[in-house]
């Protein structure tokens, strides 16, 4: 039996889980909840392991640090941003393309676990500001917004189109107490109004 198979079998024995392929997802789910509820810096790997009902050594097999867990949760975000950037790059620079890009981004931000990840990010801004994955995402956001503006656009136009993208994020940080549905609908409405205003 390989070392990996042996370790995963041990994990399954500890947890009663006969599906080791799901282990990483379970760790991510528990870590995301704890990071959000009690804070990223205040949560230890030991606490995550205890919540899962396993030893720290079993958890360490999959993730050696909290930073590794966060990075793994951001893989889907990075992949989506790459696909959206590729799509926008191949489109004409029109108002409808900008509107569609905003819609696609907004839909994705409110799909699946992304809602929980955005809530986690909103509550741990200071702790995450220097995380390498956050820097990577900021770079991709700047690349995306680069397709929204042209060098000869006025400052007002550039600002409106940039704020359209930021509106989809700002609603999480400025209005954390509204419902998810209100957050999704209102932020998209405002973002599209800003796009339309920039093209008026």
Q: How would you sum up this structure, described in words?
A:
The chain is mainly alpha-helical and 200 residues long. Helix content is 75%, strand content 0%. The chain contains 12 helices and no strands. It has helices spanning 3-15, 23-38, 45-52, 56-62, 66-73, 75-89, 95-109, 114-123, 125-128, 132-146, 155-174, 180-198. Helix 2 runs parallel beside helix 8 (114-123). It starts with a helix and ends with a helix.
Q: How confident is the prediction overall: mean pLDDT?
A: 84
Q: Compute the number of strand runs.
A: 0
Helix content: over 70%
- Structural class by SSE content: mainly alpha
Per the principal axes of the C-alpha atoms, what is the gross shape? Answer: elongated
Low-confidence stretches: 1-20
Major sheet, described briefly?
A: none
Cα radius of gyration in angstroms: 20 Å
Tell me the fraction of residues in β-strands, as a range: under 5%
The string of secondary-structure elements, in order, is HHHHHHHHHHHH
Q: Helical element count?
A: 12
* Span of the ends, CA to CA: 67 Å
Please give a handful of descriptors for the protein shown:
disordered N terminus; mainly alpha; 200 residues
